[in-house]
Design goal:
- By secondary structure, the chain is of the alpha+beta class.
- The chain has three domains: about 100 residues, no CATH class; about 80 residues; about 110 residues, no CATH class.
- It contains 15 helices and five strands.
- It has a three-stranded antiparallel sheet. It has a two-stranded antiparallel sheet with strand order 4-5.
- The N and C termini lie far apart (about 85 Å).
- This is Kinesin-associated protein 3.
- One of its GO terms (molecular function) is kinesin binding.
- InterPro entries: KAP3.
Length: about 375
Amino acid sequence: MALYTTEDAKYLKRRIRGGQIDVHPTEKALIVNYSIEATVLDEFQQTMLGDKKDAQKIIRLKSLNPNTDIRALAKEVISQCKLIHPTKRLEVEQLLSYLQNRRDTAPSMTTSGTGTQKPISDELEQPSIDFQLTETANITDIDDYAELLYDNVPDKIKGSALILQLARNPDNLSEIYQKESVLNALARVYKDEWKASIELATNIVYIFFCFSSFTDFHGLVAQYRIGAQTMTIIDAEMKKYDQWMDEIAEERKKKSQTNNILFWISSRTTIPSIPDKYKTLIRKQEQFLRVAFYLLLNLAEDLKVELKMRNKIICSQLIHALDRDNNDLLILVVSFLKKLSVFVENKNDMVSTSLIVVTSVTDIVKKRLTSSTRIEL
């Protein structure tokens, strides 16, 4: 077998071959399958290397309606898409006719029983990431973004952030829903690599939160066991938070023993009294918790799912989260507890820790009425 070097490569030959044409499973669109064959030739036109990649092009037919002239539309599609040979005009007409008469099969994105769309909350802000993401995501490039999930952690964060951009637009959810390879990659990283970066975990749980905002997609979230994994991560983050608080308390104790100083009496999580190195950690963690609890709240619309959450001690996790100074997170947690309190079993769980609940809610009210009190030791 001959050995070649990069110096031998003189020409690159690329050939695009059109393939089968299908209808989109949920949208009024055609899917054109094609392959790209790339061949590297030497100066004697001999093949050195060759590669082939299958791809798809989606042609959305926004103007297609019951009154559309199918022949004229088929002619327009073929003229604008060079991947479709003119000899396939009759096939295109048949597919367009099928789409014209097909009942809409796209997920309705309705909440149970109401028949109205449940919008993604505008109050839930885009999770922050350590670097400035200047790229605008395009749904046609989603497979490229998914490939980043197989690279290093910064690339994983970037890829998940770009997919999140797409998921935040409800119009894209149906198409992402069809991308099984993308969802598999997201679920795998969320399960196996969430410890690598809280930003990565936040991006991915936010993507599935977007799906959870519509009841029709709850089956998808359940399929990938996102709820169970989210509760596992929440539990780990709560333990991490307790460790941070113990470290902060130890630092304060050492300072109080060596210095006679003025300081502000506040809850242990009041941001001004927390060292700078912990502020960013807590902020990012609370951002994850807010998205995570919001996702679980959406999934809890199903009483069977809510029962599973109770068995995993969801009340304990929510009560633990009351020991925070993030108003948005606290409001969400209290709302979740209120929903759970409808059932006596959940209420009993809360009664067992009633002092914590009452104290935490009282603190929330006090924080809105007064500022910290200053004393001298």
